[in-house]
Design a protein that fits this description.
Elements: H1 6-9, H2 22-34, E1 40-45, H3 51-63, H4 77-83, E2 90-94, H5 101-110, E3 121-126, H6 133-144, E4 150-156, H7 164-167, E5 171-175, H8 180-193, H9 200-210, H10 214-225, H11 235-242, H12 247-258, H13 262-274, H14 279-298, H15 309-318, H16 321-337, H17 344-356, H18 393-408, H19 410-415, H20 419-426, E6 429-432, E7 437-441, H21 444-451, H22 454-465, E8 473-477, H23 493-500, H24 507-515
Parallel strand pairs: 1-4, 1-5, 2-3, 3-4, 7-8
Antiparallel strand pairs: 6-7
């Protein structure tokens, strides 16, 4: 007999053998016992969680000649024919390769005929989300009102791609990820039946890397068993086969990164690489370890193995959560970049060493009130501090003099302002207030605009009157006020040129002087 893979050999044959899906099993068994079987089912969930196995068990249960409380007997002619894939009434369709509308048309023609052997004709459509839009539309009417002897069982790993019109016509069951404890229990039961020795740490390691999929766990177990040896299944064999790193090294590396010990970080990475560990697998294990430590610090760590939970919780107390999130982001990013990196190990090491180095402040160009890129810290322009309330008669007198002087020379202040602010301030009135300078405006829009540029106005006041701390500004809505009558203009070359040009009243004499009396 040819060799059968372990995940096929250990495929569940009854609902009771399905691992980790009690909610689905209970509902299906109750329907079979009460003979209220639906015409269409949709099984959703990640890979290796028992969708196809449940579909095949349901197929045998509805056609079984001697059902036992909703379970198939697996002994009658119908059950044996279905198990041997010799039953004409059961059709399995791979939607990934039969996703056209022509395939659905053929199916619609076949459902009209009565079953040849059993009670129901069952169609199992695997990866149904791969069907085209036209195929889904062709299936709608048949799926909604099929003949009474037809049952559809649709299975998918991506339910988001299935149209709502299909979802509304099916009974949907979501298959959950299988817990690590259930996976370990199943693998230990099989190894006990085969009288094979094993280490619990090896089973925990395989369950950890199966990511909640029983099929993945059995495939990894099958590979590890082929390693052979008198000592049976050991954790070292599992790590050697998967190219992964011992969890103890991950704890050491996390502690070294948290204290920024670059020498120890490089020593751990070098030792793992020299032992032949895969770089990509190493980073995947490290990112997942950071996630486990972060989760263990926030929860009771009940979802982790009993021997691992205390270690994870202890490390979560040593390493802050902010650092763990930073590590996860950094190594996840380098894992994406490694697909294009010429040397994956170098990219990994550079990322780890970068996390051990102190962060340097980065100056952004164009930032308001920011120092130059090469300026010393002392040369940075400091923001203007807010005016402090006067605490003595002398200070109050000086503050009052500044307010009166600014109000009397508001035009000089406006001349130093940039064009957009200058035009607004020229139209405003100014008067000394109670410890501040009142700017009088005739509309709310001007007040809102000037409030956003208070810093610019106070800088102009400081430049004009040579004060370190200019007065604070207060804005008031007032319709009638005294505007400034004269705005001193800066002396520029254009202004000087305009001053030398003749006035408009003398254009005749100007023209005669240029072109002559006869030509003018």
């Amino acid at each position: 007999m040819p060799y059968t893979a372990l995940y096929r050999k250990r495929r569940p044959r009854t609902f009771g053998e399905i691992v980790g899906q009690p909610h689905v099993v209970r509902a299906l068994v109750n329907q079979l016992v009460t003979e209220q079987v639906s015409h269409a089912y949709l099984f959703c969930g990640t890979r290796g969680t028992g969708k196809t196995s449940a579909a095949k068990i349901l197929t045998r249960a509805v056609n079984c000649q001697n059902p036992r409380e909703g379970e198939p007997c697996n002994e009658c002619d119908m059950c044996r024919n279905i198990l041997l894939e010799r039953c004409l009434d059961v059709t399995e369709i791979d939607a990934a390769s039969n996703n056209g509308v022509e395939n659905i048309r053929e199916l619609r023609e076949e459902v009209k005929y009565l079953p040849a052997q059993g009670k129901y004709k069952v169609y199992i459509v695997d990866e149904v989300h791969m069907l085209s839009s036209s195929a889904f539309n062709a299936l709608l009417k048949t799926l909604e009102e099929p003949p009474p002897h037809v049952i559809f069982i649709l299975a998918t790993t991506d339910s988001q791609k299935i149209p709502a019109t299909i979802l509304s016509r099916c009974q949907r069951y979501d298959f959950r990820r299988i817990s690590a404890a259930d996976i370990v229990k199943t693998m230990a039961g099989y190894l006990g039946e085969e009288n094979l020795s094993f280490e619990n740490e090896a089973l925990d390691y395989i369950a950890y890397h199966s990511d909640g999929a029983m099929r993945d766990a059995l495939s990894l177990l099958d590979q590890c068993l082929h390693m052979g040896g008198a000592d049976g299944l050991t954790a070292e064999k599992a790590r050697e086969l998967l190219g992964a790193v011992d969890r103890a090294k991950l704890f050491e590396l996390a502690d070294a990164l948290s204290v920024a010990d670059g020498s120890l970080v490089m020593s751990i990475i070098t030792k793992a690489m020299d032992d032949g560990r895969d770089t990509t697998q190493f980073i995947s294990d490290l990112v997942r370890h950071f996630r486990d430590v972060l989760v263990a610090g926030l929860t009771s760590a009940a979802d982790f193995p009993a021997d691992m939970a205390p270690l994870l919780m202890a490390q979560s107390e040593r390493v802050p959560g902010g650092k763990l999130i930073k590590f996860i982001n950094a190594f996840s990013e380098v894992q994406r970049e490694m697909r294009f990196a010429p040397h994956a190990r170098t990219a990994f090491e550079v990322c780890a060493l970068r996390l051990c180095m102190p962060e340097e402040p980065i100056q952004v160009r164009g930032e308001e009130n920011a120092p130059a890129m090469n300026a010393k810290p002392a040369e940075a322009k400091k923001p203007i501090p807010a005016a402090k309330p006067a605490t003595s008669p002398t200070v109050e007198a000086k503050a009052g003099n500044i307010l009166g002087e600014v109000a009397a020379n508001w035009g000089k202040v406006c001349a130093k302002l940039p064009a957009p602010v200058r035009s607004l301030c020229v139209a405003c009135g100014v008067e000394p207030g109670d410890g501040n300078l009142k700017i009088l405006c005739d509309n709310e829009t001007t007040i809102a605009l000037l409030k956003q540029r208070q810093t610019v106005i106070r800088e102009a006041i400081a430049d004009c009157f040579n004060v370190i701390t200019p007065p604070n500004l207060a804005f008031e809505l007032r319709e009638a006020y005294n505007r400034i009558t004269e705005l001193p203009a800066p002396q520029t070359e254009e202004k000087t040129k305009e001053a030398t040009e003749p006035a408009l009243d003398d254009w005749a004499s100007f023209g005669q002087a240029v072109v002559g009396d006869d030509e003018w």
